[in-house]
Design brief:
Layout lengths: L4 H13 L3 H13 L10 H8 L4 H8 L5 E6 L14 H11 L3 E7 L5 H4 L8 H16 L6 E5 L5 H11 L5 E4 L10 H12 L5 H11 L11 H11 L17 H14 L10 H4 L2 H14 L5 H11 L6 H8 L16 H6 L2 H11 L20 E6 L2 E6 L23 E6 L2 E6 L9 E9 L2 H9 L7 E5 L4 H4 L8 H9 L4 E5 L12 E6 L16 E5 L4 E4 L3 H6 L19 H6 L15
Helix pairs in contact: 5-12, 7-8, 8-15, 9-10, 9-21, 11-14, 14-16
Amino acid sequence: MSMNPVVAEVTERIVRRSANSRPAYLARLKKAAGSGPHRGVLSCGNLAHGFAACPDRDKKALTGDEAVNIAIVSAYNDMLSAHQPFHRFPEIIKDAAHRNGAVAQFAGGVPAMCDGVTQGQPGMELSLFSRDVIAMATAVSLSHNMFDAALCLGVCDKIVPGLLIGALSFGHLPTVFVPAGPMPSGLPNKEKARIRQLFAKGEIDKDELLKAESRSYHSPGTCTFYGTANSNQMLMEIMGLHVPGSAFVNPTSTERDPLTREAVRRVILLTRQAGNFTPIGEVIDEKAIVNGLVGLLASGGSTNHALHLVAIARAAGIRINWDDFSDLSAVVPLLARVYPNGTADVNHFHAAGGLAFMIRELLDAGLAHEDVTTVAGEGLRAYTQAPMLEGDQLVWRDAPAESGDHTILGTVAKPFAPDGGLKLLSGNLGRGVIKTSAVKPEHRFVEAPAVVFDDQNDLMTAFQAGELEKDLVAVIRFQGPHVNGMPELHKLTPSLGVLQDKGFKVALVTDGRMSGASGKVPAAIHITPECGRGGPMGKVRAGDMIRLDAEHGTLEALVDPAEWEARTCEAPPETPTYGLGRELFAPFRAAVGPAEEGATVLGGMA
């Protein structure tokens, strides 16, 4: 199948846009790779420090040049359900390494915070910046120059992007990403959302809400809705960094440990010692990034990747922007209905055929690049197979010929929507993005008076006082990365959903973020330039008519142009920048780049 012309053109313009930065990155990668195991440049004292705590067999192996030494970089902690299973993985990995004639060392742990815990709390102001901290912690973990390859263990929102950005700074190392899998299905996500709205209306108490939440988030494993965490796992598959088919296998599944062992075997095969040197910096190229974009759109993935994928690409010397997202969205159909785009969860999606089925559909339609380098040692077609056990051996079989549930997993011939539902918005308020795949068509155009807030809690107070019972566009300003770290505003979703259900025209406009589970209320997010740096959204006054047209990609304040030009942007309010660690991130807030460039502080990226 020939490539879709839009996909081909977007790929080519990314190559042209990256004509200086990508070759410079690859040149640095080649220089860093050298000609042999990196520990060969270490002095005897360096090396002795590096393996002092190892058993004698590992010391002997690391003294020579032939044994592969694998770095384990893990985001384990036992508060995050998605990362709790990782406590078992290092011993599994070390054992598998020994069985394959290699050594594995736990190189370092990286922080891992949960947006579900910090949602609506001051700690959320650290969330986006934690991605860059994780990238730096990954680099510190790999900085000892002891390693020939790496395994990165992570799942959730900022963690996988941070691990990947950090790994790309060591782009000369072969690297495989190792997931832990989603928790089994609990309370259906649609029912969880309904109960949240009942609580927002005051119809149930906190005890009833907590019971429902605890039935939804109930065991080790990733949350089962299709937010940023599960979008991360999809990306690692379609960008060729996972063992094929490993993303959505439950932590307690009989396939989970064999897949982890297989990740060890695969990363060894990619090393110089094995004669098939495949560094991660060559796996993540322009075509892999486009495949990631296409997969995000086809699956109805997280809006947070309008930031993260940009930052990931930049770490590999590749330049993408929101025009690329929007242009691809126009031709990539929506193939999945997983909450918040539907009622199913990722376990149902996986059972229906999952990523293997979806990737095959995209390849067969010419919407994804097959000729890419992957950790599977083959092109992307390897990811159209799913793993299973025959006895105690892993084997891969082709995805089913038909979707196991046509209400969850569609085809290119019969998609759920003709476009991917992540669109660029632009106008006199700046540039931003909107996810429309979960928004009903009748709610994609809103023209209503602005209600302006500088803090999400003020909106909640107004809602509870009954002051928002009307058509409105909630403009939440000064939520960008420069002012307060760009927190998610998902706490507002139940209240705005209540207003929408009452028949009011409702939308949200902000320079902050919404959850990767952004749902039925139209939300123009990531508006750039942000208000804290003079963005035009700071000119909005209460009562201004705001037009959000998701179909035509426009976001405008309907104010006389002369008056609009004469207005000045209001200054940021005095808000706390201390407490719960926020004072430590002042340098990040001062240095952070704009949202469309990834909202990153990592100035050394190509």
